């Protein structure tokens, strides 16, 4: 590899490095940010939203009944019906519908919710056409964006993330809009609970976790997918911002949706590289969710693209290609967000001779012919980007474990995180790297306890049903 390219790669590796001191500092900063977010009612860019969810306990596994769940939060909209059997198990029927890109931005919330309601009609016709006319089905809505919740079934959208941008919806109650569209279709459905996907994941993993078998307590629900976020149960005295609101007297805790995607928006500890800044600049929520933009599936491919374009502009890669194409590059390289993180998951582990598999993949998926040297550089970059993402992902987990571990001082059970999302589930080595970085931070030092990251399949749907059931 030529020495200029080698030193450009070294520059990125250094700029993205995550060492023990960084992890310790960031974990402490996360702990401080949690308290600030729990004290401040108004959500600003300066701190994590730490949103009270009005879910005041977590399931025991004994809950039962038939519930509907709708899940909107990314590229697919899902509808499910869940029959909770009361013994840690459930039956699930579900349908998945891709959300048309033209409904995600440059449109109205009515267009989006009318699409969503029409899919519920299809689902009910396909799976529940035998229901008694007098029955109204109870539904939980999983809505995976920052929402200021004012009750278990009420919440106003604070801002869109993950590429959605329908300005008329911001500040409005999403349950209201959704119910109006269901009623317009005369569907026998009442939306009685609103939950973030992380809250759903926490609830569903808690329901499925038979702790007598796993010897672990479920303490966090986390998503590492298109976006990233986590929820956990906080003791009520530690949430000053809900002090004055009405709560039943015996309430001891409440699930908090941290919105950790917005950890350190002011970049006090996180890497402030020019490549991260370039990615942020392309998003509709600029200056927000900067932690998410370093970690989650929507942004890893974009980071690679931005770095490759920088290398191209510095004359380090794709020079012959550019000339051979009449001074152009393939549009999947020049246009934002067309290089999917899924491609990185193949590049990451390619061990074929001269990285031939990557060569084919990039030709097919990106229309990008490459030299062996370019492929070596691209694989190195992929690994640098994904390793940083995985190591950063350990920070919120370690901070929350540090915060809650004393509550479990009297038992010998391990801690588990219920997880969902494509990165944690499918990206090669991601989960192990999160665990490795957690070990470096080592919040369980001095105990015999371990941390487990357990996939909560279909977590957000089942969790919304559980929310509806606990109302
Ligand atoms: C949203 C969160 C959500 C996370 C994972 C983020 O962009 O702000 O509400 O939980 O993505 O889906």
TrEMBL record:
Tell me a GO biological process for this protein: intracellular glucose homeostasis
Give the pathway listed in the UniProt entry for this protein.
Answer: Carbohydrate degradation; glycolysis; D-glyceraldehyde 3-phosphate and glycerone phosphate from D-glucose: step 1/4
Q: Which PROSITE patterns match?
A: HEXOKINASE_2 (PS51748)
**Domain Hexokinase N-terminal, first and last residues per copy:** 9-207
Checking InterPro entries in the record gives: ATPase_NBD, Hexokinase, Hexokinase_C, Hexokinase_N
Q: Does the keyword NADP apply?
A: no
User: Which GO molecular function terms does the record list?
Assistant: ATP binding; D-glucose binding; fructokinase activity; glucokinase activity
Q: Name one GO cellular component term.
A: mitochondrion
For the Hexokinase C-terminal domain, which residue ranges apply? 220-470
Coiled-coil stretches are none
- What keywords does the record list, in alphabetical order? ATP-binding, Glycolysis, Kinase, Nucleotide-binding, Transferase
Instruction: Give the family from UniProt.
Output: Belongs to the hexokinase family.
Q: What is this protein called?
A: Phosphotransferase
Naturally occurring in which organism (per UniProt): Australozyma saopauloensis
Q: Which taxonomic lineage is given here? A: Eukaryota, Fungi, Dikarya, Ascomycota, Saccharomycotina
